[in-house]
Amino acid sequence: MQQSARGHGNYVFTVYGLRLVCLEMRALLQTLRGVRYCATSTTMAKEVSELCVPVPWGEIRGKVWGPDHGRPVLCLHGWADNCGTFNTLIPLLPKECRYVAVDLAGHGLSSHRPPGDFYSFPAYVADVRRVADALQLQKFSIIGHSMGADIAGMFSALYPEMVDALVLLDAYGFLPTDLKELPKVLRQGMDEMLQFEKTEKKKRVYTYEKAVERLLAANPTLSEQSVHILLERGLVQVNEAGFVFSRDLRVNFKNIVPISLEQSLEMQSRIQASVLVVLADEGFNRICFEPAQRKLTSTLLQCLQARNHMVVKVPGDHHFHLNKPEVITSFVSDFLRTKVLSQSNRQHKL
Length: 350
Prior knowledge:
- This protein is of the alpha/beta class.
- The protein has helices at 2-5, 10-33, 121-134, 147-158, 182-198, 208-218, 224-234, 261-269, 284-288, 291-306, 320-323, 326-349, and strands at residues 36-39, 48-55, 58-65, 71-76, 97-102, 140-145, 163-169, 235-237, 243-245, 274-282, 310-317.
- A 9-stranded mixed β-sheet has the order 1-2-3-5-4-6-7-10-11, with helices on both faces.
- The chain is globular and about 55 Å long.
């Protein structure tokens, strides 16, 4: 706009003035909504803003890539990870989208839930709605990895009108529990919380090198480079050489709101969005699940396919999107272009 106005005297001043007004209005709206952005660099591969959304107990933090008016894509990480898990994937995806990757409550730089509160899937879903409302997102896509994919699935079932496309990375959108095991799981989660409340809350302090070793030992599917990426938001320095993990220890407890296969299938049927499932051949289902659990997830997968949703399997492990994003880039990019961007262009032409 400025280039086309050069040499036109008062028109330049008017356009420049309007731009200032627009910038001031945008800043005012962000202040009113309580959302803060802080730009950190200047290219799509590196252009990242820090996001901060106020919530009743503190703030949800995150990172934003892409143009201000790009098609919104919310990115949800897996258990014990943080939004850095998308650092290597997002720069390879369509540039027309605006990617908002959040640190879920109790993870990364986001605030921990208040004392006595549980971490459950419905609570995370409510957080996603809080973020969407703060950003004034009426319709958006979601990319979710592992636990983030299960949160995305539940959100898409409860708010189907808000989600146009859903990408599930090494997950099925829901994590069903055998009906007979539900009381046991519920009690275990409660007992873990009650026991935790009786103990001294003191986190172990690590050197950075020991923190790297600890995360690699707990997540053998991570490459060393991926570990360093996650630790950027996964550690808090407490003294000159000491760090503690930033995540809340309570995220380790059993989810006290487990759902059965029947409940999962009912919610799956309510999803209106187009769905892409990308599974790793050495992923979560093969390594972590017992045969009984695999049977439940297999049923979920069969029902997704029966509804003509897209399911692909690629070489790699549970963190394939972070370790080797190029393995899945074409699938995710084509899906977004076909199900989101092309639809948006068609609507604009109409």
